[in-house]
Amino acid sequence: MRVLAFLLPLYLLGCGSTINKKDVQSLTNRPEQFVISEEEQTLIARSNKLHNDLVKQGLIVRNKAANDYIAHMAKKIEPDFDAHIDISYFILRDSSLNAFALPNGNIYLNAGLINQLASEDELALVMAHEMAHVVERHGLIKLLDRKQTVVSSHVVDLIFMGTGLIYFAAISDLASFSRQMEEEADSLAIEYLAESDYDLNKGITAIEKLVLEKHGKELGSIWSSHPDISTRAKAGREKISAMNWQVTEHVSSHPDYEDFRSSLTELVIKTRLRNKQFELAADIAKRELEISPDNALLYYYLGEANRLKSSETRAYAKEYAWLYDEDFDDDLIEKLSEGNSGYIASSKQYFEKATELNSTLSLPYKGLGLLALDQQDVNQAKSYLQQYLSYDGIKDRRYINSLIDNLKG
Amino acid sequence: MLSKLNKLVVVFTVLVVTGCAQTTVRHHQDFETVAKNVQSVVILPAQVEIEQINFDGDNTPLEEKSALIKSQIESIAELKLENESLQVIEFDFAKAFEEDEEFAYAITQAKEAWEAAKGELYEQGLVSEKEKSNFQASLGSALNIIADKTGADAALLVQYTGFEKSSGMIAKDVASSVLVGVLTLGAVVPIQATEGAFIDVALVDSNSGKVIWANRKGGTSADASPAEIVFGELPDLTWKSELAAPTNQPVAEESVSPKAPDSE
């Protein structure tokens, strides 16, 4: 009995694969050298299912102009290969700074990441990095590595500060790689870009700056999943120098990038607000206002971020604790509530500014109405909310009507 | 005297027990009033995920079983709602998603809002029967687009996760149980679950977003039985369909809920 107890686990550990790790070739190798194993077929099937799930959840951005832009960039970067996998690109309705690649060749770029990257050179570096994961078949290699390791469960809950957005558990499983693979992808990304019109150093510098921003703390970010981004950036620069790439000053110009980037702004701000990331939403609105100072919609969102900071102090405290590494406790909630009158005043100011800049915009009236409601000013609330409902195309009419019904009396 | 004392003891015990009884059920504090505006419900496609936990860590989603359990859960839900005199609206969500990606995204947003609301609803874990109606959770306007498309007064959200262990994993569990038993000379022999499931449900007013009723249960089988249990605790309310013909008497006023969350 004792012998059985000790031998059984050893027997169970002997589960084998149909392919060895060393047989996994890069897609840039000759096609006849590929071995398409059962494991890879399973991975591709799971990736396809995940993609279908993302489509069914409405998480893939269908903006044709934006998708065409990405496809155009990809053509300039992708290495040549002829294989059983095609690389496809998608923009994901997600505000976090992330991008990921699946074993079926699908690469997803989060709207939040694109919106944050100031130049096409930076985005090109990210895309090239993800391409490298696909081309080198890192998903399959990772699976083969893991077959020899006993793991109790891989269900990962990607929680953004407790909002519990669990639909990305499968992404975490299929699209997270080892440090070695990340470094290999970094190196290959630079190679892919070396012959293009993209400025390599600009790309690396911007990514370094990105992780120093508040957003860099986001769980699941490709740039924070492995330690020491500075080491990776340094390795990148050393490679550029060693290979004598772009030794003369590189002038890259992509005049349409700003329109493409800013087309995703509203989506990103709305998602941040929905995820109760009020400060991050406000930061984006302020940043964009520096570029478009008369944008009434941005003033509305700034007003909304401030309103929510005051009306959802607990949620704001969670964000604050996460951003500034403070303890989320009653003291923090109390400290932040002391700022409520300031947030309320700022919110009103921003909503009113929005109405001044664009009287045809309905949203600021909703903001003013909800603000009045938060402050128990029934008459003002009813007046503003009714003004909001007087516009066409109001999607949350039922909800606002239910609030007004509650105020009747 | 003794008989009176016995009666007092019984009454006291009942009071203590019912007062201390813990529950996973949650009601909105206005649930009885909100119910008077609800006569139809649409069941959003249940989110069902069952996976087989394998020894090598590469867990396998059990898609066929998930589809079967999903269908069973939705049937159980429909029957229970109809037993409460609520009209269950049939709606082809798959077709609607294909025609309108914004609608698909709206469902996702509703589920995200529900996840956030669950944090508020279940932060304290089990609560007493008295406390279960103290909640003000709301999904805001997240369900308005669903109300516009389906015409339903309320929506039922369902999330189910289940697992089964593979034979290799069970063998590993048996081996480790045997090992622990051997090492403790039989004093401890752990028995590990080979399957299990957890279900979360919420009935939400599609206009105001108020979570009328929510509940959650776990089970030791990866089947639809937790759904029978969870829906068995639907509240016995007077729904709109059960109200008498309207009169000229004013409806009772509701209090303002200034903390209702907003979403676009």
UniProtKB/TrEMBL annotation, chain A:
UniProt keyword annotations, A-Z: Hydrolase, Metal-binding, Metalloprotease, Protease, Zinc
Domain Peptidase M48: 89-235
Superkingdom of source: Bacteria
Keyword field contains Protease: yes
Pfam families in UniProt: Peptidase_M48
Cofactor mode of binding and number, as noted: Binds 1 zinc ion per subunit.
Keyword rRNA-binding: no
CC cofactor: Zn(2+)
UniProt family annotation: Belongs to the peptidase M48 family.
Name by which UniProt lists this protein: Peptidase M48 domain-containing protein
Protein's organism: Thalassotalea eurytherma
TrEMBL record, chain B:
Region (Disordered): 243-264
The protein's name in its UniProt record: Uncharacterized protein
